[in-house]
Amino acid sequence: AQNARISIKMENVPISQVIKEIENQTRYLFINKGVDTKNKVSINAVQKTIQDVGSGEWLPRRHIHKKKNRI
Questions:
Q1: Could you give phi then psi for residue 56, rounded to 5 degrees?
Q2: Which residues lie closer than 8 Å to 15 by C-beta, 6 or more apart?
Q3: Confidence category of residue 62, pLDDT binned at 50, 70, 90
Q4: What pLDDT digit, counting tens, does each position of 3-14 carry?
Q5: Helix/strand/coil for 19
């Protein structure tokens, strides 16, 4: 899942909306504690890894967690 590629283009949207879209495209789960998900951001990523997309100041890396496989 670390090599999963994301394509997402959003402008002036709440961080919560970006997080939801990334979770829909990947097997990652975001822990939002300490992140104001109402803040608005713009993102334009084409075939980027989760590390590339989530490396901005808007989302510290410690908030990104790989989901466990479901049985």
A1: -75, 170
A2: 35, 36, 37, 38, 39, 40, 41, 58, 59
A3: low
A4: 778 899 999 999
A5: helix
Round to whole Å and give the CA distance between 31 and 63: 5
* 54-63: b (≥16 Cβ within 10 Å) or e: beeebbeeee
Residue holding tokens 């899942």? 1
For residue 50, how many other CB atoms are within 10 A of its CB? 22
CB 65 within 8 Å of CB 29: yes
Give the global pTM: 0.73
> Is 65 within 8 Å of 33 (Cβ atoms)?
no
